[in-house]
Every structure is written in C-alpha cells, then in structure tokens.
Amino acid sequence: MSNAQEAGLPDALLQFYTTAPYPCSYLSDRQARSQVAIPPEHIDTAVYSVLIQRGFRRSGQFTYRPRCDGCARCVPVRVRALDFAPDRTQRKVVNRLNKPGLMQVRECSLTFNPEHYALYRAYQQSRHAKGGMDEDDADQYTQFLLNSGVDTRLIEFRVEDRLVMVSVMDVLPDGLSAVYTFYDPTDCKASYGTYAVLWQIIQCQHNNLPYLYLGYWIAESEKMAYKSRFQPMDMLEDGHWIKMPT
Prior knowledge:
Strand content: 25-35%
Largest sheet: 8 strands, mixed
Number of helices: 6
Number of strands: 15
Number of domains: 2
CATH architecture of the largest domain: 3-Layer(aba) Sandwich
Structural class: alpha+beta
Order of helices and strands: EEEEEHEEEHEHHEEEHEHEE
C-alpha cells in the first residue's frame, strides 16, 4: 500500500495497491498488473480529475492505472479538443451521419435499460468473443458502466428510431473522458466508433473544454491504435503531458 501523496492527493483519504499479474487484454504474450486507488467512495469528480491527470482510468467504481512488470506500452492519451480539426475521412463520417433527421442523440439516465444491454451484448459477442466481456451478465454490465461516483453521462444514438450506439462519458473540469462506447456491429461501414469520438470532441468544443481523454493508446494493439488518428493529441510520459509526435 502507498498513500495518496504518491498521486498528488495529500488531502484525500486514498490508498493504492498493485494487483497480482493477470493476462493482458491487448497483448496476448504479456501479463498485466494494475495499481488501484481505494476506497472508491472517496473518489468523486474532483478527486478523479486529479487521478486522470496521472494516468488513471475507471471501470465502474474500479479506478486504476497500469503497473505492469517490464512493460510500459499503455500510454495515457488525450485529444487537444480546442485545436482539433477533422481530416477528410472524419468529415465524411460526420457529414454522412449528421444528415438532417438521420441521427437522433439524447442523454439518458444512468440506469439499466434492456435495449441498451441487448446492444452491448451483441457488440461484445461480435468484437470481443472469447475475451470475457462477451459473457457479461446484466449485473456485470451495470457494475461496469452504470456504477459511478463521478459526473457521468449516458448518451444514446438512434438512426430512424433504431438504437445504433451508446456512449458513456465522464464530465471533468478540464474536459470529457470517454469511458466506453458500444454500437451495432452489423453495420460495419457506418463508422459509429469514429463518429462517437468526433461527437465527444465537438461537445468539448461547444463547452470550451480543452481535452477529451481517450484512455490508453497501445501502438501494437489494433483495438487501441486507432486513437492516434485524432490529432493533435497529448501523451503522458514520465508524469508529464507532452504532445504526441505525428
């Protein structure tokens, strides 16, 4: 255990522990470990905003950062939202899905919705089969996405009244943090995942929030490498945010 001073939180009653090794979700030949902040009831929006600056992320009430033996491939990244301009491909995605009357977007309460859960299961079974999350039951889904001690928003996206995507994001003093997005896996050409990131960047711009936190970028992982397409971007290196080379 270590105290909160390690994370720059002298006034917070937090402790940190490192988990035992477990199989890495992104690099098949690696073992991962996480440093976890506890107790979760002390991690509100203000405390979490400090932790995320130091590379922490959250999964439900579980707030963590990688602490892997001999590996530092998980790099915390954030988009410089106020400086962002979409490239040609990204503009095409936005223009296609933003046609008048096509995409309906609304904020929903952070409560269990069977329609959302059915889409989540379909997405997991398509994208993460045999990865564990494809077997999440309703309780695991609730713990993962609906259990939060910070200011969290759940946004649903519909095309012609058909649910196509759900995004969960945290609202922080200096930006938004993309927690998780899942979408209809049968429409592989729709680029819903790209649209979700662009939509969140636009929300940052509309609210004059400088950053969109995208979690960890792993150059060798196809699941994570896409994040580097949203430039300009900062990366956390040796405790300091620096501009990511392009």
